[in-house]
Amino acid sequence: MKQYQGQLIAPAGAKFALLVSRFNEFITSKLLGGAIDALTRHGVSEDDIEVVWAPGSFEIPVVAARLAQSGRYAGVVCLGAVIRGGTDHYQYVAAEVSKGISVVALRSGVPCIMGVLTCDTLEQAVDRAGAKSGNKGAEAATAALEMANLLRQLPADGGES
Ligand code: INI
Question: Which of 89, 99, 107, 152 is catalytic?
């Protein structure tokens, strides 16, 4: 039986894009810090990390698509914070960003990681951005590393062998 799993080590020469929403920057800057910390502590050089800012989470998918299609990155880590407000705007942003990231990953074949928080309250977001519930930016970056390594091991498209 052969098993495949991605290691949590920096793949040689691989670059990672950290795509961050400026909206709720108080939270997203903490996610970004967690993601950079996770990547560098797993051996990724700072020279291989590129940070891209989008205005809000809603804009993340179109920017992720450009980054993924460029062929420059082994993974795109999407970081944002969608926090419920007084209207249902939150629901539309949360639905579009999560679906959009998934579509970009499937169409491009590049791991696009969903590190966008969807929270009922600011307190929940703080908890997930480096307080009680850890740092979801670090988790997302670790998932990108694992996926980059996993996809390098898997057979390329082309049918059974
Ligand atoms: N963007 C977020 O990243 N988080 C939010 O909580 C949020 N809310 O609730 O409004 C939000 N809105 C902005 C949105 O992402 C777009 O930038 C804006 O609608 C312009 O297209």
Answer: 89
Q: In ligand 1, which atom is closest to the CA atom of 90?
A: 9
pLDDT, one tens digit per residue, over 108-120 is: 999 999 999 999 9
pLDDT at position 62 over 60: yes
89 classed as catalytic? yes
Residue ranges lining ligand 1, Cβ < 6 Å: 21, 23-24, 55-59, 80-83, 85, 89-90, 93
Q: Report residue 129: phi and psi, to 5°.
A: -110, 30
Judged against a pLDDT cut of 90, whether residue 58 lies above it is answered with: yes
- As a whole number of angstroms, the distance between CA 145 and CA 44 comes to 9
Q: What is the pTM of this model?
A: 0.96
Contact 46, 85 (CB under 8 A): no
Q: CA 5 from chain center: how many Å?
A: 19
